[in-house]
Structures are given as structure tokens and as C-alpha cells.
Amino acid sequence: KAGVTQTPRYLIKTRGQQVTLSCSPISGHRSVSWYQQTPGQGLQFLFEYFSETQRNKGNFPGRFSGRQFSNSRSEMNVSTLELGDSALYLCASSLGTGAAGAFFGQGTRLTVV
Amino acid sequence: DQQVKQNSPSLSVQEGRISILNCDYTNSMFDYFLWYKKYPAEGPTFLISISSIKDKNEDGRFTVFLNKSAKHLSLHIVPSQPGDSAVYFCAAKGPGSGNTGKLIFGQGTTLQVKP
């Protein structure tokens, strides 16, 4: 069965713009989590969605938002981009909330210039 | 507030020897711990996990040890192979599906296994 699919793989945006990233979880998985990976910071938790509801949220400013659709696909939006938002954004899917052993996508590499 | 810490950014080991990657945590509510491996241009993949009711879990060349009193876990790879060269993340979670149930990751340790 297909794995977690993230689109696009690479993205270059300028400061002040907004961006939307997409994640399609593994078929049957209802939980989608988003992480930001930067050098030296590891994977920072952004938020988790389950059945179209945000269940958990990390310590990121309100410029970072997300949503989940009825088919479990999820989107993450970042508004008013800053240079520091440049990172690898990873999506992970799992069967339920709090499920360990989540499966990750390849990520979207966002560069803000 | 880094609840999960990997204090060694990098580790270099000779092929065939043991690799030991360390991880410390601060939240005593954590009851499940995982290790992920990440190659460049790929997402992290699950490697091995351990529940807080155990102090050791073994899977082939990989063994994870948990010392709850010290809030410390380690991943042992024996023998190390060049294909093990990757970034290793430890992660922890607490019980339930609420805020305590989310996976918290460390900063990662880059392992290089030299032939």
C-alpha cells in the first residue's frame, strides 16, 4: 500500500508570502501530525489532526495553521513567511491519535528568501 | 524547553564495532520511547521502541536500553555497518491521546560508520 505522500517536495518562497503544504496519509490512517525539522533543533511538533479536528498543538506562532479533510488528507499553511521558516516540513500518519510508530513522508523542503 | 535531548550531535564508529547513541528526557510522564532513523532526502523511519515497563528491547542488531530512574535511554547497534550511517532521532510520548500523547523528538545524532 502507498506510503505517506507530501507535495510539493521542494518550494522556494519570498518573505511575506504564504505557503500551503499537502500531506496524504496512508490509506486507513486517520491521524496526521506535522513536524518542522531544522539543523540542531530536531523535529519540532507543530500539530496533530484526527478526524478533521486538531487534537494537539505545539509551540508555534499563529502564522502556522493546518486542517484535515474528510478523506484524512491534511494541509499546513504558513502565512507571512519569515527567513527562519526555512526548514524541512514532515508529515506523519498513524491509525489513531497518540499512536506510536507513526509513518513519515519524505517531507517538503521550504526555502524562504 | 527541550524535553528530549540528544547531547551528541555526531558519532563516528568503525565498521564492526558497537555504536551507542544516547538520549535523555525530563518528563516523568513519558511511558513509551522510540528510535527513528533518517537518511538524507527521506523521511524518518521507525527503528525500535520500548515501553516503560521494560528496561531492554532487542531486535536483531539493535537493542534499546531504558533507565527510568536516570531518565535515560540508549540505542546499541552491534555490529555497526556502513549502511547504518544516518541521523538517529529518539522520541518519547506519554499516555493517552491528548497533549501528553504526542511524540516529542530529540535533536538527532548523526552516525557515521567507517568501512
Sum up the structure in keywords:
heterodimer; A: mainly beta; seven-stranded mixed sheet; four-stranded antiparallel sheet; 11 strands; B: 115 residues; mainly beta; six-stranded mixed sheet; 0% helix
Description of the molecule:
The complex is a heterodimer of chains A (about 110) and B (about 120). Chain A has no helices and 11 strands. Chain A has strands at about 5, 10-15, 20-25, 30-40, 40-50, 55, 65-70, 75-80, 85-95, 105, 110. Helices cover about 0% and strands about 50% of the residues of chain B. Chain B is globular. Chain B is built from no helices and 11 strands. The interface between A and B is medium-sized, with 27 and 28 residues.
- Average pLDDT of chain A, rounded to a whole number, is 91
**Quaternary status of these chains?**
heterodimer
Biggest sheet of chain B, open or closed, and with what strands and sense? Answer: 6 strands, mixed
**End-to-end C-alpha gap of chain A:** 37 Å
Q: Compute the number of helices of chain A.
A: 0
Major pleated sheet of chain A = 7 strands, mixed
Distance between the termini of chain B: 38 Å
- Which residues of chain A sit in consecutive blocks of at least 5 with pLDDT less than 50? none
Structural class of chain A: mainly beta
- Shape type of chain B: globular
User: Most extensive interface, residues per chain?
Assistant: A-B, 27 and 28 residues
- The outline of chain A comes out as globular
Radius of gyration of chain A (Å): 13 Å
| Rg estimate of chain B, integer Å | 14 Å
Number of DSSP strand runs of chain A = 11
Task: State the gist of this model.
The complex is a heterodimer of chains A (113) and B (115). Chain A is mainly β and 113 residues long.
